[in-house]
Write a structure and sequence with these properties.
Layout: E1 3-4, E2 11-12, H1 29-37, E3 43-44, E4 47-48, H2 53-64, H3 73-87, H4 91-119
Antiparallel strand pairs: 1-2, 3-4
Helix pairs in contact: 1-3
Bound molecules: zinc ion.
């Protein structure tokens, strides 16, 4: 995990932690989205959209040298929209999805268990 501090360019190990150099911690949705884009956690719907570690390190150095990263506002807005969509998934749907995923392997385990049990 690698994340660039949007404020000072410092390389951090976690997204959520505040920056040890400038103490900047993203709170606003837009700042969080920007921090997310400048990290190796940048993944949407299971697809990696982020940059390489080398690119992120180079961006960090540029920010450190007084060249703020030029965010694509469309990209920032789409990350915010994605975060809202993920948070808007009702807990009930998550439970149903969970059962759908868990049921087949559980059934297989039950059948396997019963087969082993009956052969003894
Ligand atoms: Zn910082």
């Amino acid at each position: 995990m690698l994340a660039v501090c949007v404020h000072c360019g410092n390389i951090k190990r976690t997204l959520s932690a505040g920056c040890v150099i400038c103490h900047f911690q993203p709170h606003a949705a837009e700042d969080k989205a920007k921090a997310f884009i400048l990290s190796t956690a940048y993944e949407i719907d299971g697809e990696y959209r982020g940059m390489t570690r080398e690119q992120l390190t180079a961006i960090g150095t540029a920010i450190e040298n007084g060249h703020p990263y030029a965010f694509d506002q469309t990209e920032v807005q789409s990350v915010i929209a994605y975060a809202k969509r993920v948070l808007a998934v009702p807990p009930r749907r998550l439970v149903i999805d969970g059962v759908r995923w868990l049921l087949p392997p559980l059934l297989i385990l039950m059948v396997a268990y019963l087969l082993v049990f009956w052969t003894k």
